[in-house]
Amino acid sequence: MHGLRPVTLCLLLLLHGALIFMVNAGITSSFVRKEAKSIDMPFSSDVFSHPPGYNAPQQVHITQGDHVGRAVIVSWVTQNEPGSSTVVYWAEKTPNQKHRATAGKVTTYKYYNYTSGFIHHCNIKNLEFDTKYHYEVGISTRRRRRFWFMTPPAVGPDVPYTFGLMGDLGQTYDSNVTLTHYEMNPVKGQAVLFVGDLSYADHYPFHDNSRWDSWGRFAERSTAYQPWIWTAGNHELDYEPTIGETKPFKPFLHRYRVPFRASGSTEPLWYSIKRASAYVIVLSSYSAYGMYTPQYQWLLEEFPKVNRSETPWLIVLMHSPWYNSNSYHFMEGETMRVMFEPWFVHYKVDLVFAGHVHAYERSERISNIAYNIVNGECTPVKDQSAPVYITIGDGGNIEGLANNMTEPQPKYSAYREASFGHATLEIKNRTHAYYSWHRNSDGYAVRADSVMFFNRYWHPKDDSSSRA
Ligand SMILES: [Fe+2]
């Protein structure tokens, strides 16, 4: 009888060790995306085309206009003159009952040597829940354009609802693939939770704001038909003192309105909405959040208002991730994590979505809140009261992929991959939500990473092994 030769034994032991590591550790996907530069589509691309006709409304986009989903803010730009700021709208079931709402002041802004078109924002209110509405803008001219949207069902604990998730989208050929995949995904998102970094106009000399316009025209095919819930990213700052532009977020805030007052916020950069069975809190990574600041004070008062019997799913959006094992933007979210993580655990936030890092990552349920300067307890630990952190900054912008991970993969990181894509969150009821990430390199229906999440308030069981 021959025993195992020492070399074979060593190999077997190594293999055994590797298998144990694979079982216990997270996954760094072996999928390798073809390396190709992400290039912005030229202005002449069909996705940027202007609607035909003099002063025709363009860059149409909608977002939720109140706290519960019975109002919609309709925004658009007219290039030549202010034109009409009225929206005509009607429920599909009562086409003869046409309503009119008129925007407040039509705004414009200047950015260095750029002057914007005429920006209209009109909040249409007192809509019925769960109803299809048609709407028209540009009604004083022959260039009126018609779109439609669905209002969400009334807020309630077991109302199914499906969100799409995108971040760091930009306007490259890859961005176009991401948006197309979202549109073609058979899961059919009903509203988009967008985690910041829209146009990347600041990539150009003097932050060429024409790229804000082209982004608005590019995204219109989705943003005109379903609300996008906006989060501000660093590419919304447009802070450039060298050319005299010292007011942060100037283009973004002129172009994108949110219903911040409805949630008691004093600034459009942080706010909340309820939608179906979800309570969505939007935070600003690039506004002050230290103790006593307006954002801190608002969040302190906001968390106790969330009634999980009404909206079981508590979701937070921010731009800069707290848990990120990519070397790109490593630890940039750390100061906000230190400030707010104890609250997230105390109030049992279900899911935190962030962008910023141009790759995909999903964490385990972990927290790191024991540290108090002297006790040395500064390692993330499994925590069933903690959220899952998801980085979804892989929309496909001009800066390209972030494919330099820190090694080894930290234990808290459940799945990571440097590919472009989007995600969907299908809330089924108060206990279960089916989440999937879809990489652009696959077919529309392929779920590259998917998990059945259990609600932290109603069903706080370990869902880490529910990878589907
Ligand atoms: Fe960013």
Describe this structure in words.
The protein is an alpha+beta fold. It has six helices and 25 strands. The chain has helices at residues 6-24, 173-184, 210-223, 250-255, 294-302, 334-346, and strands at 27-28, 58-64, 72-78, 86-91, 99-102, 110-111, 114-115, 118-124, 132-137, 145-150, 161-166, 191-194, 228-229, 271-275, 278-282, 313-317, 351-354, 360-363, 366-367, 381-382, 388-392, 413-417, 421-427, 432-439, 449-454. The strands form six sheets. It has an eight-stranded mixed β-sheet with strand order 1-22-18-21-17-16-15-14, with no helix packed on it. A six-stranded mixed β-sheet has the order 13-12-11-23-24-25, with helices on one face. It has a four-stranded antiparallel β-sheet with strand order 5-4-9-10, with no helix packed on it. Strand 15 (278-282), helix 5 (294-302) and strand 16 (313-317) form a beta-alpha-beta unit. The protein is globular and about 65 Å long. The model is unreliable at 6-24 (pLDDT under 50). Residues 168, 197, 233-235, 319, 356 line the site of fe (ii) ion. Fe (ii) ion binds at residues 168, 197, 233-235, 319, 356. InterPro entries: Calcineurin-like_PHP, Metallo-depent_PP-like, MPP_PAP, PAPs-like, PAPs_C, PAPs_N, Purple_acid_Pase-like_N. It comes from Deinandra increscens subsp. villosa.
